[in-house]
Write a structure and sequence with these properties.
By secondary structure, this protein is of the alpha/beta class. Helix content is 28%, strand content 21%. Strand 11 and strand 12 form a beta hairpin. The chain is globular and about 70 Å long.
């Protein structure tokens, strides 16, 4: 085989379970994530060489709960540089822990400025496990990254032979291999033995059509999430967060984005208090499916509905939105378009 004729893929390694090691093949839950390097992951799966030439860059090597804004920023900048400077790169694959892979994917979906495929991949079992899922996931991620059909679909997450859109996907099960789901919207497609096949495209703005240019962002505002439940103490927490300098709060509301009377009063007090920049509140939901839409009583409080973004992704969009504007109408537009 003429390997030089194969497409070139850059793998950006960040750690996670896919790079984890346990003491035995049955150590499925007790293991150290982010142990193996990205080069070792590729070397352990020679089948990748049937499809692409691979260049590995190690961004970090941590468990995914330790991935944060600094790593997101570094990944986005590196991907943008690769796409701008290296026209022969077919696509980018990011190895990542599954716990926060959806957040990294969505940040990149909003800040990568090119339409070349960017595919995040992870595993539910460590590399040392009996029936580890990482190797096949990695092969499938590379196959997805080189597929011409993957271009222009935004950032993708590939595990368990399934392709999900960064905006829609969420982790839905603690240990099962089929954990990643896009709720009622469903997968974009599959990675099967014969080919990578798609059935739909994301409709929301992303990547090349995004207005969030990292070059123009000097710093990110602090955004936090509050979880609503019966007799939640969120009124007290709103006060504490604002005293700590938080500029925006996403509330994982009950039902279709509803707040208790105490929570509504806390929001009302927060946005009416004189002498400081008004915080921005976003209504998301803890439900898992469906839209949060505008309602008069919440609109009058200046609360922005999150559409169907889950709380963790609403936080990312609000964080980026506040680097551009504090106009609530403009922020609401962004939540409609992204």
């Amino acid at each position: 085989m003429d390997t030089e004729s194969l497409p070139l893929v850059v793998v950006l390694a960040t750690g996670g379970t896919i790079a984890g090691m346990g003491k035995s093949k049955m150590s499925l839950t007790e293991y150290k994530a982010g142990t193996l390097l990205g080069t070792e992951l590729i070397e352990a799966v020679p089948e990748v060489a049937q499809y692409a030439r691979v260049r590995v860059e190690q961004i970090c090597n941590v468990a995914s709960p330790d991935v944060g804004i600094a790593t997101w920023h570094r990944l986005a900048e590196r991907i943008n540089a690769i796409c701008a400077q290296e026209s022969d790169i077919a696509g980018v694959v990011i190895t990542h822990g599954t716990s926060t892979i959806e957040e990294t994917a969505y940040f990149l979906n909003l800040t990568v400025m090119y339409d070349r495929p960017v595919v995040l991949v992870g595993a539910q079992r460590p590399a040392t496990a009996l029936s580890a899922d990482g190797p096949l996931n990695l092969v499938n991620a590379v196959r997805t990254a080189i597929a011409p059909e993957s271009r222009g679909r935004g950032v993708l997450v590939v595990l368990n032979d399934e392709i999900n859109a960064a905006r829609d996907v969420t982790k839905s099960n603690t240990y099962r291999a089929e954990t990643f789901r896009s709720g009622e919207l469903g997968f974009l497609g599959y990675v099967d033995v014969d080919r990578v096949v798609y059935y739909r495209k994301p409709e929301k703005r992303h990547t090349v059509n995004s207005e969030f240019n990292l070059v123009k962002i000097a710093a990110f505002p602090k955004i936090e999430i509050l979880y609503s439940y019966a007799e939640a103490g969120n009124a007290m927490l709103v006060t504490a967060l604002l005293q700590a300098g938080v500029q925006g709060i996403v509330i994982a509301c009950t039902g279709a984005g509803t707040l208790s009377s105490a929570e509504k009063e806390a929001v009302r007090n927060a946005v009416s208090e004189a002498g400081r920049v008004k915080p921005v509140f976003v209504r998301s939901t803890r439900v898992g499916n469906g839209r949060v839409i505008g309602r008069k009583e919440y609109d009058e409080l200046g609360m922005v509905p999150a559409d169907n973004l889950n709380p963790q992704k609403a936080r990312i969009l609000l964080m980026l939105a506040l680097t551009k504007t504090r106009d609530l109408r403009e922020i609401a537009r962004m939540f409609t378009e992204y």
